[in-house]
User: What shape does this take?
Amino acid sequence: MATTGTTRQNGLAKALPLLTPAYAWLTLAIFLPLSAMVYFSLLTSMSPSEQSSSLTLANYAAFFSDPLYATLLMRSLQLGLLVTLICVLVGFPAAYVLAKIFKGRVREAIFLLVILPFWSNSLVRVFSWSMVLREGGILDTALNAVLPFEVTFDLMYSYPAVVIGLVHSYLPYMVLTCYLSLQAIDDALIEAARSLGASRFTTLRRVVAPLALPGVLAGSALIFIPVVGSFMEPRILGGRGGTLYGTVIEDQFTAVYNWPLGAALSFILLAVVLVILLVAAPVLRKAA
Amino acid sequence: MIRAPAFLSGLGRAYIGLVLLFLYLPLVIMAAMSFNASPFYQLPFEGTTEWYAALTQNDGLIAATLNSLKIAVMTTILATILGTAASLALFRYEFRGKRVLQALLFPPIAIPWLISGTAMLIFFFGTGIGRGLHAILLGHVALALPYVIIVVSARLQTFSKDLEDAAASLGASSWQTTRKVTLPCIAPGIVAGGLFAFAVSFDQFVVSYFLATPGQTTLPVEIYAAIRKGFTPEINAVSTIIIVFSMSLMLVVSRFFRFGGDQ
Assistant: This one.
């Protein structure tokens, strides 16, 4: 298409009235706040108007001088990886069965059943696990009713409880994105591979997996990013052991009221997430 | 066609069953416990509706629920209108910087909500916009907008520009073309985008949490506060109502739009 400079300018003139409201809103509520946060992270004290406040790198230095922050950041990244990995291992086979074994209305119904919990409140879902996992809770009671010997366990306020709650919250994302890319794979490709003598496993590894990779990666990004910044799930299910990078940031804003430190910690998290996304981007583009 | 052997297909069905059990177990238990007399979720089960009765007396929770609904509806309306307008502009016109604008839709989605929320808190506090329901609405619309634009743009990809050109050549004005040709064709995309906006807003906890004030709060924020203060069975009752409400809404919508079916 031959687009000259004048029609391009003309296009912008016509597009602006339609675009301005949306992008002005995004600027006011996302981009300006993020810029403000960078500035705030460099302040010595809460209020920018205070005389005593000046610019400093101390808040960033705090991250590097106290090993606790780096340790917690590593813990949060590990948690993000673990939850994402479990979601891939559980969600991909589910999406595969859904896309390739079920057909027609049954498939539609089951697909809906899988994504329905996703539309219920995430806090509610996390809170409901606390009733299942605690000592004398539902799982405990149910197991003792079936097993011939007495077991007592209390998973509540533990790392596994946090992992279970997060996997439950984010699993539908993975099933959804994997399903979308698996559904797009022509069955004829799988049949061709099989009729050329490839085993089921080889077909899966050499044909299905590469074609489904964009879905897996998209789902992984959708899960990893919020999990690394999670603080609500660790608070409710993790108790004392649930201290993570996200809960420390929450504390700076709601309990300690050290907003500049909170801003610096947030910004470090943002930088780490962006670096991970940038590293993953070429892989994603190659796969897509 | 090479069909999977029966045992593999059976295994697949059993596996989906297990996944569904995992997804629904806590929700079913929550619903059951909302009818259990013991406030500490002790078994044996004793049926009661007292927590639902207590809920009707809990003014704080009711006010927060109404706030959540109000904000979700307003977010849906605002984000759908702004998002559809922006999608149309990005679809119709060529101009310098278009790719940059499209790329700018991803930060609001790709940044952890914890960071968006704290950034909004700092900025709204510093500029005098302040906290409260208006700030929450401001934040929710921004979070929902990219989803609306992406969903509506996807629908526009299947729409042919020729139809707009045909309408224009028959003498329709630009606004008439939009109203009578383009919008009806992409209506399913607009409705889907609006639904996304409603879901994003109604379920949004993190950003609301940082922007809420004691008098002006939303349901998820109230639930979080109640959970941290101690277990309250009224939360089970209100949660059960939300689950039934949001799932029914989705079921009704899915009657009109086929999800996951063969295209």
Notes: Residues 90 and 230 of chain A are 21 Å apart (CA to CA). The mean pLDDT of chain A is 84. The radius of gyration of chain A is 24 Å.
